[in-house]
């Protein structure tokens, strides 16, 4: 099943992780309009003040999750089960819309240089860059506005900082005048640049040259302003307006299903039958859980509203907010009890209805808010004396994490008992700091401040790592055992491989080869026995190898050997059930073999494609087989039921040399021809056999393909820059270059960069694993790298130039 998630926020990342954890066999793809992988918007303020980077607030995604960035979905085709962006289409079995919300503004700000919302990483970057020397005017006084105000106070840039409320309140209209006065005083006394304006609003503005030069307010005029809007949000559901039932958001049931049973909506974009729209991270993730249970066919009652706990830590005060589902701010039967302490700057504000607690808002409170939550859930009548008796610090200390009920003393006990030394070590024992992430820094600081026995910590850490490793190895062993139960369509047994290795006296070489490929796959040496077992299972995978438009170089690369080496044996041992070049059968007989695999091993076979796909003249530049089927139609037919599709070599990657300018046949790569973004690319000219074997081994051992980079290439093989691991790199650093073939530098093995080597622009492991059993590679032999793994650009430009002109360099290499 292919599950496509539209959106790039916390909920999208949460769903992808939960789906892979609960049902890893399903394909998961995230399609996001943002240019960045999913990140934690809770920490946008840290981007404003520069305390964290976008990479540091990125949300982890499990391997095997596809990611399409810069892809805004503009259309949903429910009949074809496809979504469309401006340039691509994606098929789905289940579609999950998690597009969140979009911010409101008081007037159009598109194109204005000094007016932004505060909703994304780009908004944060804009604020950080442009507030210097400005009079910042923040419109909106909700939690995000207060948090951003706190952050702006840490910057030297703004001249003045105005926080503007159209009403008399801060944070929420339920706040008491005493609480508002306290918060206002704390902010304004902490930074003389801050001025909080209540019952104020913009009545006019002056715009010159795309910039607001002046705003006129009821009580004053502010020159040279920088406006930040935080005046509310609305569900971001434009893509669904024409195809799904809508109100304010996408209408869903308690299982988060829309009117189309194949389409779900979760988070701020979804609206439940009673009009409820989630706003907190906890609520959104519970909606995601309800959707996942429904998608996977698990029993569940669906999403239910619940008592919420929210927290806000800014400046010198900590605000806690507990709200019952029965709370109605307009109910005239609401009664209020307020306990304040000027000495502690503390406010405990209780709202009751019919003698039952329905809301609590505390500033610097000592109250056990979890106890209040339970009180609201039970619906029991309360005694006001209880509130006064419990106003002082509880035995469990302050609540650090409201999402995971993490109290200070409880966490300290966990930290000391288990000798926790880092935030990562805490995960097996508590989810504190991991749900909405708002208190992550507080939890990390608590760990840093809590002393533990270093010797005991080291011992327990080693025990935990050993247990984790044992669990992982057991998981891989189980996966290999599972392969033993598969029906092998060929007669090759593991003994055949062992006999072949013995016959060629390769036992030592084979063991070294296993160690080498284990290391290249970035696995611990403990995995070597399992890698060896995995190799023995390779022939259990039905493989179809299609030969399309190319020179057969990749096939030649591993079959042409007078003296078999380990790579050759392994690749010959793989169950190549169909390979036009190698198989004995031909004509109709070979076509029967192909049809049989497609029919009998549907969903289990792996398709490897070598060569480009000519698309010109409806694909007629390439016809194959007795029926003259075009290469494109053959590829499409075989790929439809493949468990995975691997493009082998640069031509299959993006057309390679076949697609070099002027590309008369209209050749493209496999992914472009199929219109799919889940193709595993192994570019190279030819691809190193180790990269093929390693990718297949990873699939066998972990039941999934390895982690991929943005070009869908396995990171373990393509996560290295050739230049960084080149044996001639030292000469580059010393400015020692070959300037003419045969000169003194060439004799001394100096750097080939000025002779046209493109190692700095190539991401491949050639310089690490080399070819011919690791004996050599082009640069070692005196020929510069031309970045063949980069695809057709290597043939159009890289191979034809010595040092590249500035405009021809990859973007990341431009000065």
How would you characterize this protein structure?
By secondary structure, this protein is of the alpha/beta class. Helices cover 31% and strands 19% of the residues. It is built from 27 helices and 36 strands. It has a five-stranded parallel β-sheet, with helices on one face. The chain has a five-stranded parallel β-sheet with strand order 9-16-10-11-12. A five-stranded antiparallel β-sheet has the order 21-22-25-24-23, sandwiched between helices. Helix 13 runs antiparallel to helix 17 (566-573), helix 14 (507-520) crosses helix 15 (528-536) and helix 15 crosses helix 22. The two termini are 45 Å apart. The model is unreliable at 486-492 (pLDDT under 50).
Quick take:
This protein has 815 residues and is α/β, with parallel strands linked by helices. Mean pLDDT is 85; it is low at 486-492.
Structural class: alpha/beta
End-to-end separation in angstroms reads 45 Å
Low-confidence stretches: 486-492
Beta strand count: 36
Shape, principal axes of CA atoms: globular
Query: What's the alpha carbon Rg, rounded to whole Å?
Result: 31 Å
Largest sheet: 5 strands, parallel
Kindly report the spatial arrangement of strands forming the biggest sheet. Answer: 3-2-1-7-19
Instruction: Estimate the mean pLDDT confidence.
Output: 85
The count of helical stretches stands at: 27
Helix content: 25-40%
Beta-strand content: 15-25%
């Amino acid at each position: 099943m292919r599950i496509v998630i539209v959106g790039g926020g916390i909920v999208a990342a949460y769903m992808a992780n939960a789906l892979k954890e609960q049902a890893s066999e399903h394909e998961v793809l995230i399609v996001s309009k943002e240019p960045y992988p999913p990140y934690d918007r809770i920490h946008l303020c840290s981007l404003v003040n520069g305390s964290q980077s976008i990479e540091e607030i990125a949300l982890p995604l499990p391997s095997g999750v596809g990611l399409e960035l810069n892809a805004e979905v503009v259309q949903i085709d429910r009949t074809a089960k496809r979504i469309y962006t401006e340039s691509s289409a994606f098929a789905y079995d289940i579609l999950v819309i998690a597009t969140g919300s979009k911010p409101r503004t008081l007037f159009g700000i598109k194109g204005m240089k000094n007016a932004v919302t505060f909703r994304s990483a780009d908004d944060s970057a804009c604020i950080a860059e442009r507030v210097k020397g400005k009079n910042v005017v923040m419109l909106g006084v909700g939690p995000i506005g207060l948090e951003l105000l706190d952050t702006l106070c840490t910057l030297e840039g703004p001249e003045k900082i105005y926080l503007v409320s159209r009403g008399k309140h801060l944070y929420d209209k339920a706040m008491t005048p005493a609480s508002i006065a306290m918060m206002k005083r704390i902010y304004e006394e902490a930074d003389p640049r801050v001025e909080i304006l209540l019952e104020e609003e913009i009545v006019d503005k002056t715009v010159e040259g795309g910039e607001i030069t002046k705003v006129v307010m009821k009580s004053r005029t502010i020159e040279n302003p920088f406006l930040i809007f935080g005046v509310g949000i609305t569900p971001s559901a434009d893509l669904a307006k024409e195809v799904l039932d809508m109100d304010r958001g996408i209408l869903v049931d308690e299982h988060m299903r829309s009117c189309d049973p194949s389409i779900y909506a979760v988070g701020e974009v979804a609206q439940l039958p009673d009009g409820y729209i989630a706003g907190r991270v906890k609520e959104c993730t519970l909606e995601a859980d309800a959707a996942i249970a429904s998608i996977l066919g698990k029993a569940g009652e669906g999403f239910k509203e619940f008592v919420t706990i929210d927290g806000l830590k800014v400046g010198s005060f900590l605000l806690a907010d507990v709200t019952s589902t029965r709370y109605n701010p307009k109910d005239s039967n609401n009664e209020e009890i307020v306990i304040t302490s000027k000495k502690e700057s503390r406010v405990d504000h209780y709202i009751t209805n019919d003698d039952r607690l329905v809301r609590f808002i505390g500033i610097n409170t000592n109250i056990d808010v979890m106890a209040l939550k339970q009180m609201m859930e039970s619906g029991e009548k309360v005694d006001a004396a209880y509130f006064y008796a419990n106003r002082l610090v509880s035995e469990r200390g302050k609540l650090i994490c409201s999402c995971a009920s993490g109290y200070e003393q409880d966490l300290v006990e966990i930290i000391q008992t288990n000798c926790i030394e880092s935030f990562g070590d805490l995960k097996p024992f508590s989810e504190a700091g991991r749900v909405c992430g708002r208190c992550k820094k507080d939890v990390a600081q608590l760990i840093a401040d809590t002393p533990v026995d270093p010797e005991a910590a080291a011992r327990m850490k080693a025990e935990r790592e050993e247990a984790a490793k044992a669990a992982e190895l057991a998981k891989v062993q189980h996966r290999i055992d599972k392969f033993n139960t598969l029906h092998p369509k060929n007669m090759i047994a593991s003994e055949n491989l062992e006999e072949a290795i013995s016959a060629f006296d390769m036992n030592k070489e084979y063991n070294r080869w296993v160690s080498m490929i284990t290391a290249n796959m970035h696995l611990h040496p403990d995995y070597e026995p399992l890698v060896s077992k995995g190799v023995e299972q390779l022939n259990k995978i039905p493989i179809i190898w299609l030969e399309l438009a190319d020179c057969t170089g990749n096939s030649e690369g591993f079959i042409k050997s007078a003296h078999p080496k380990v790579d050759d044996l392994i690749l010959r041992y793989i169950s190549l059930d169909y390979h036009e070049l190698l198989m004995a059968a031909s004509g109709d007989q070979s076509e029967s073999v192909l049809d049989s695999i497609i029919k009998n091993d549907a969903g289990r076979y792996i398709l490897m494609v070598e060569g480009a796909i000519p698309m010109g003249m409806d694909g007629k530049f390439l016809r194959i087989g007795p029926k003259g089927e075009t290469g494109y139609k053959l590829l499409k037919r075989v790929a439809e039921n493949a468990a995975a599709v691997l493009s082998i070599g640069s031509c299959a990657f993006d057309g390679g040399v076949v697609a070099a300018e002027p590309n008369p046949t209209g050749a493209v790569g496999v992914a472009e021809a199929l219109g799919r973004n889940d193709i595993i690319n192994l570019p190279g000219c030819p691809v190193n056999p180790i990269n093929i074997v390693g990718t297949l081994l990873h699939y066998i051992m972990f039941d999934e393909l390895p982690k991929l980079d943005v070009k869908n290439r396995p990171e373990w093989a393509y996560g290295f820059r050739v230049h960084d691991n080149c044996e001639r790199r030292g000469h580059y650093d010393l400015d020692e270059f070959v300037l003419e073939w045969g000169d003194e530098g060439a004799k001394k093995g100096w750097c080939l960069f000025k002779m046209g080597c493109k190692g700095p622009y190539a991401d491949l492991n050639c310089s690490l694993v080399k070819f011919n059993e690791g004996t050599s590679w082009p640069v070692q032999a005196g020929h510069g790298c031309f970045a063949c793994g980069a695809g057709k650009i290597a043939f159009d430009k890289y191979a034809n130039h010595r040092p590249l002109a500035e405009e021809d360099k990859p973007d990341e290499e431009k000065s």
